[in-house]
Design brief:
By secondary structure, this protein is an alpha+beta fold. The protein has a single domain, classed as Jelly Rolls. The mean pLDDT is about 95. The structure holds fe (ii) ion. Fe (ii) ion (FE2) binds next to strand 7.
Length: about 170
């Protein structure tokens, strides 16, 4: 049974911080149109990007967008849904849409729906999985140390199969 279900950003940040996960809500960019190009997004968030880089490095920053008509959406979803770790932090900021990060820390699993304006930093070595849903819809900034981008080591643990997916959680989210 869940111990806590909340959409309160400060409470989410506090609970995650106590487990070593950084979470922030950034001010919305009302002037940034939906579907903006990568350069436009990076320019709009230049100050925040600079701040994150000054705190943690991450020399490579890009913006990716996934839409429901992406031809590889099922394969991509399946890959991210298996529990894995990275040798570097997984740092994301959601410009549009949403995605579900599931963090396996000790005996706990924290399921965090990140949506527009949410920033999260999953530390290197943290067991986790991610659900973009059957109809992915998001645009996210990605901060990397490794210019090769997303590299994962899969744990082989089927734990993710026992937890609700993005769509199921959204249906009960407060
Ligand atoms: Fe990951």
């Amino acid at each position: 049974m869940p111990e806590l279900i909340t959409s309160d950003g400060e409470l989410i940040a506090e609970e995650l911080a106590s487990r070593g996960i950084r979470f922030q809500r950034w001010p919305a960019r009302a002037a940034l149109p939906t579907g903006a190009a990568e350069a436009e997004i990076l320019a709009a968030y230049a100050d925040e990007v600079k701040r994150v880089q000054s705190e943690g490095g991450y020399p490579t920053v890009d913006a990716i967008r996934l839409n429901p008509d992406h031809p590889d959406r099922e394969a991509l979803r399946g890959k991210f849904l298996a529990e894995h770790v990275h040798s570097e932090d997984e740092v994301r900021f959601f410009v549009e849409g949403r995605g579900l990060f599931c963090l396996h820390i000790g005996d706990e699993v924290l399921q965090v729906i990140c949506q527009a304006d949410d920033w999260i930093a999953v530390p290197a070595g943290t067991r986790h999985w991610f659900d973009m849903g059957p109809e992915p819809q998001f645009c996210a900034l990605r901060f990397f140390h490794n210019p090769e981008g997303w590299v994962a080591q899969f744990t082989g643990d089927p734990i993710a199969q026992g937890y609700p997916l993005l769509d199921q959680l959204q249906a009960v989210a407060p």
